[in-house]
C-alpha cells in the first residue's frame, strides 16, 4: 500500500519503467530480490517491509475453505467446495475450462450480489470476509479486475477513479485529493499502463475497446493499489504489446507483502507474471494444484491430460 | 388536439352571432370586439351580465373558466392606457376561444395523467405590479449569472433590475410600449400570436399585462445569452387555498440569419412551499437560417403551480435547441409545440425532470414536420425520487406527407427511485411520409446493479454510488446547456436537491 501514496508517485513511475527487464520466464524467487531492492529505495515510510522475505513464514492473506455458492436468482449451484490458501507475496493462477466457475469464484471473493454463499468460509487478513460489504473488502486492499468491466455512461473515468481513490484515503485517515491534485497524481500512472490521456475524460469504459477496458482496470489497480490483486482474464483480448504493458504494471506492484490471484487460459501471461502455484478448477472445485509445469502440459495436451477425475 | 381545436373554433364563429346589443368589446367578454364595433366604455357589470345571461354561451362556457377570465381581465382594466394593438389582438383572440374552453378534466387525453384540480380548487388572485422600491435588496434578485439579463417579477419587467446595455445595435428587449421602431412593431403584430394552445395558453393571453418582446434583426448574432429571470415574489401560505397568479408573456422574434441564446429561469423567492401560480407563455419565431438556443430552468417552490407554454415556428434551415431542467412546483407542466414551416430545419430537444417530493412534472411536447429534410432529436429524462412523486411525458412527433427524408429521433428514459413513484410516458411518432428515418425508445428502470457493484468493488459505498449514478443520469441533459455557468449552476442545484433524498439501498 505504501507504494501508492501520492508523494511517491513520480518515483514509482521511474521505478517501474526500469523494472521490467526480467526475462519473461524468470521465476518469482529470482525476481524477488530485485523488487526488494527497488522497494527499499522507494518505500521511505516503511523500510521494515523490505525485511520480509519469501518462504514458509509468510503470513496468511486469504483462506477459502469448502466454499460453495449458488446463483442468487436461480439457486443453481456453481461453486461446490473450493479450497484455496494464499499467503503474502504469493502469485496464484487459476485455470480451467469455460464455465468451470473461475469468474464466479473471484466474484464471490469480492462480494458480488449475483451469488449466495451456501457453505464454507473465507478469511481475509484474519477477518471473516463474508461479514464485509463489497466496498469494505475493496478498501481493505482487495481488488478485482473484471473479466468484462461494465460501462457507466455519464460518469467520467477520472471522476470515478478520484472517488475510489478518496474512499481509500478516507479509510486510511488521509486527506482526500481534489480533482486537480488527483490529476497530478495519476498523470504519470497513465504511462505505466500506456493509456491515452483522453480515456480519462471519457465515461467509464463507455465505448472503450476490449484492450482499453483491460488497461483501464489495470490503471485502477495501479492507482488504488492492492494487497490482493485478483485479475480475471486480464490477458484476453490484449495485443502482444498491451500484454507486456499490463504484465509490467502488475509486476511493478508486486512486493513481498502483496499477492496476486489471476485467472488465465494461456501460458503466455504466466511467463510474464510467474505464479507460485497453479490451480485447475473443474465443475466448481479446485481439482489440482501444482507449479508452472501444469500450464505447460495444458498448453500442449489440453484439459484431458490433467483432469481431476 | 389541434384538429379538435380548430373544429371547436369554427363552431364558435357560427354560433356566437348573437344580437349585437348583447355584446360589448374589450371584455372577456372582449371575445367579440371584432363582431361588434361597439363602444369601449361599457361598464364591467354589464359585461358580466352578458356572459351569465346569454343562453348560447351559458351552454358552451365553463362558468369557472369565465369567472377566472373575468378576474384576470378586471385586474388589467385598472392599468391606465389602452393596450397596444398586438396585445389587444392577443386578448381578443384568447377571450373568444376561452368561451368555449372548459376546464380540462382527467377525461381529456392531454390531461389524463395530470390532475389540475389543485389549481381549479384554489382561489386565484391576480398580482398587480410590485411597487416596492426596495426590490434590489433581495439578494436573489441582484445575483447575476450572465451579463445580459432581464428581471421579471410576478410577470412584470423590472427595468431597474435588468442589464441590457451590452445588447448589439438593432436588438430590442422590452415591453411593447417601449418599441420605438414602427417596423419592429409591425413584425410583432404579424407574429402575435403564432399559435393557439389550451386553456392555460388562453388564460395567459387574457391575463398577460404586456408582451415582452425580444427582437433580433436580420443577420444579427447576439453573442452572449440573454437571461430572463422570472421571480415569483408574491405567494400564499401552504393550505391557504389561494394562488396569486402571474402571466408572463414573451415573444422571441429572430429574423433571417439572426442568432440568440435565451436562458429562462423560474424561481420562487420565499420559502420552499409558498403557493402561487406562474402561467407563462413564450412564443418563438425563427426566420430562415436563424438560430435560437433556449435554456429553460424551472425551480419554483414546491407549493407552486407552474404551467408553461413554449410554441416555436421554424422557417427553413433554422435551428432550435432547447435544454430544460425542471425540478420545482407541486404541479409543473411544460407544453412544447414546435412547428416546422420550411425545409431543412434542425430541432434538438433535451429535457430533464426531477420529482423529489409530492409533485408532478409533466412534459407535453409536439413536433410537427411538414417539410422535407428536417432533423429532430428529442431526449427526455426524468427521475422520480419520492413515493408520491409523479412524472408525465407525452411526446408526439408528426412526420407529415411532405416531410420526406426527415430524420427524427426520440428517446425517453425514466428512473424510479422509490416504490410507488410513478411515471406515465407516451412517446409517439406519427409518420405519414414514407422516406424517413425515425427512431424512438422508452425505458423505465431503477439503477443498474452491475454499475452499482462496480463502484462498490472499487471501495465506493453504495450511497455514494447511487448518488453518482443518479447525477450522471441527469448530467446527460445538464451537459447540453450551451453556457457553462448555467451548467454549473444547474448541476449544483441538482446535487443539492438529490442529496437528502438519495434512498438508502
Ligand atoms: N449471474 C449468473 N447467472 C446465470 N448463470 C451464471 C451466472 N454466473 C455464472 N453463471 C454460470 O455459472 C457457470 C460458471 O460461470 P463462470 O463465469 O464462473 O465461468 P468461468 O470459469 O469464468 O468461464 P470462462 O472461462 O468462460 O470465463 C457458467 O455455466 C455460467 O453460465
Ligand atoms: Mg470467467
**Cα separation of the termini of chain B:** 43 Å
Helix/strand order of chain A: HHEEEHEEHEEHHHEHEHEHEEH
Number of strands of chain B: 21
What percent of residues of chain B are in strands?
Answer: 25-35%
Average pLDDT of chain B, to the nearest integer? 85
Helix content of chain A: 25-40%
Largest sheet of chain A: 6 strands, mixed
Overall mean pLDDT score of chain A?
82
The second-level CATH architecture of chain A is 3-Layer(aba) Sandwich
Oligomer: heterodimer
Q: Please report the number of helical segments of chain A.
A: 11
CATH superfamily label of chain A: P-loop containing nucleotide triphosphate hydrolases
Residue stretches of chain A low in confidence (pLDDT < 50, at least 5 long) are: 1-55
What does the overall shape of chain A look like?
globular
Feature tags:
heterodimer; A: alpha/beta; 12 strands; disordered N terminus; B: 505 residues; alpha/beta; ten-stranded mixed sheet; 12 helices; disordered C terminus; binds adenosine-5'-triphosphate; binds magnesium ion
Description:
Chain A: One of its GO terms (molecular function) is ATP binding. The complex is a heterodimer of chains A (309) and B (505). Chain A is an alpha/beta fold and 309 residues long. Chain A has one domain (12-305): P-loop containing nucleotide triphosphate hydrolases (Rossmann fold), CATH 3.40.50. Chain A is 38% helix and 24% strand. Chain A has a 6-stranded mixed β-sheet with strand order 6-9-10-3-11-12, sandwiched between helices. Chain A has a 4-stranded antiparallel β-sheet with strand order 2-1-4-5. In chain A, strands 7-8 form a two-stranded antiparallel sheet. In chain A, a hairpin with a 5-residue loop joins strand 1 and strand 2. Residues 1-55 of chain A have low confidence and may be disordered. In chain B, a hairpin with a 2-residue loop joins strand 2 and strand 3 (156-163). Chain B has 12 helices and 21 strands. Helix content of chain B is 25%, strand content 34%. Chain B is α/β, with parallel strands linked by helices. In chain B, strands 1, 4, 5, 7, 8, 10, 12, 14, 16, 18 and 20 form an 11-stranded mixed β-sheet that branches. Chain B has 3 domains: 22-103; 117-449, no CATH class; 450-505, no CATH class. Chain B has helices spanning 2-15, 44-53, 55-60, 63-77, 85-98, 117-120, 139-142, 182-191, 199-207, 449-457, 462-478, 484-498, and strands spanning 123-126, 148-153, 156-163, 172-175, 212-216, 226-232, 242-246, 249-254, 259-268, 277-286, 291-299, 305-314, 319-326, 331-340, 346-355, 360-369, 375-384, 390-399, 407-416, 422-431, 437-445. The relative contact order of chain B is 0.08. At the A-B interface, helix 4, strand 7, helix 5 and strand 8 of A face helix 10 and helix 11 of B. The complex binds adenosine-5'-triphosphate and magnesium ion (MG). Adenosine-5'-triphosphate is lined by residues 71, 78, 96, 98-104, 114, 147 of chain A.
